[in-house]
Structures are given as C-alpha cells and as structure tokens.
Amino acid sequence: MSRAALLVLADGRFPAGGHAHSGGAEAAVTAGRIRDAASLEAFCRGRLHTAGLVAAGLAAAAAAGCDPLELDEAADARTPVPALRLTARRLGRQMMRAARATWPSAELDALAAARPRGAHQPVVLGLAARSAGLGPLDAAYAAAYENISGPATASVRLLSLDPFDATAVLARLAAPLDQVAQQAVEAARRVPSEGTGVLPAASAPLLDITAQQHAAWPVRLFAS
From CA 219, how far away is CA 139, in angstroms rounded? Predict the structure, then answer.
C-alpha cells in the first residue's frame, strides 16, 4: 500500500469538482454567520462533527469493502434535503470520473454502471481509496478533511479572508479531525455484522435549510 496515494486523493487540485462547492459557506457568509477566522472555525468545527462525520463513516465503510450500493442507500437516508442529495451525486459522478482515470478498478466500474447519474460522493471517495490501495482510516481522513477544507477555501474567496488565517483554522481542527476519523472507522468495522444503521447519522438542520435556500438563488458564486 502506498500512503502517498492519500496525498493525491486529498489534494484540492484532484479534479473531483469540489472547488465549485462551498460546503454551505456561501450561505453562511451571506447570513453573517461566517464573518472572520473565529466564526469560520466555529462553522467548520460544527460541520466536521456532523456532515464530516457522516461522510467519513460512509467513506471508511466503502474502503473496507462494504457493499457500495447499500452504502449509497444509507447516504440517501442521511441526506434529507433534495439540494444536498443532488450535490452529493453530482460530486460523486465527478469523483468517479477522476478516480477511474487515476486508479482503474472493477469495483469502480461496477458502481459507475449501477449508478450512472452518480453515487453519493463519500461512497465513491471510499471506493476510490480502496482502488488506490488505501485503507478505511485513510478514506475517513480524506472525507473529513474535505468537509472542512472546502468551506475554508471558499471563505477566503467570499470574504477576502487572509489565507494564512484560514489555514490556521484547519490546523486547529487537527485533533478533532483525528477523533472524527477514528470514530468513523470504528463504526465502519461494525457494518458487516450489524448493517449500515450503525454508521454515523449526525444531522445539521441549519446546513440543510440553507442548502435548499441557496439552491434557489438566481446568482451565486458556488454551486452549493
């Protein structure tokens, strides 16, 4: 196993489409909930322990070899808002294209055939990690980190926030990210014997509400 593949998968320049999405940051900036580095950190911390944890659990389970179609259904059940389901599948479709070009595998081909409109992005990410020879913990880290690095990067553009401050926010969240990744892996290990119901299902109602509102904006900088 080459751990260097994790650097490729987690790199913001990996062509998986994430740069076009703010992870809820655009709506939060407009509402005044993200104003500076301190409020960005609070937003990212909350997202890490909700959407980030859910994504990390799904990705870890996919990387562990759990049935990706069952995981995709579990992801749907954990995504009650239509706008976020659509976003997750669009990002999954783009991630699938990038992953199949980078780490071709029969498992990726099978999921792409079964979900031509895209599977949920964390499931594809986990399967991409598996195809790259990475393990569940690697996939959990990549999914959790993506859930906070996206809003941090978007906030730099939306607020003209100092990039050094945004990077410092991510650094301060390192320990909580470790905890979330480990929690996700522990849940993923139980899936074969207990089913997908044991995966994290943390909710973030405000993120859900603002995501649906954001989807209806006539003018926006980010797709979500």
Answer: 34
The answer to whether 141 touches 170, Cβ cutoff 8 Å, is: no
Locus of tokens 């949920």? 120
For the stretch 52-78, pLDDT in tens is: 999 999 999 999 999 999 999 999 999
Our CA angle for 158, 205, 160, nearest 5°, is 10
Exposure pattern of 174-200 as b/e (b: 16+ CB <10 Å)? eebbeebbebbbebbbebeeeebebbb
The predicted-structure confidence for 87-125, as pLDDT tens digits, reads as follows: 999 999 999 999 999 999 999 999 999 999 999 999 999
Distance CA 198, CA 200 (A): 6
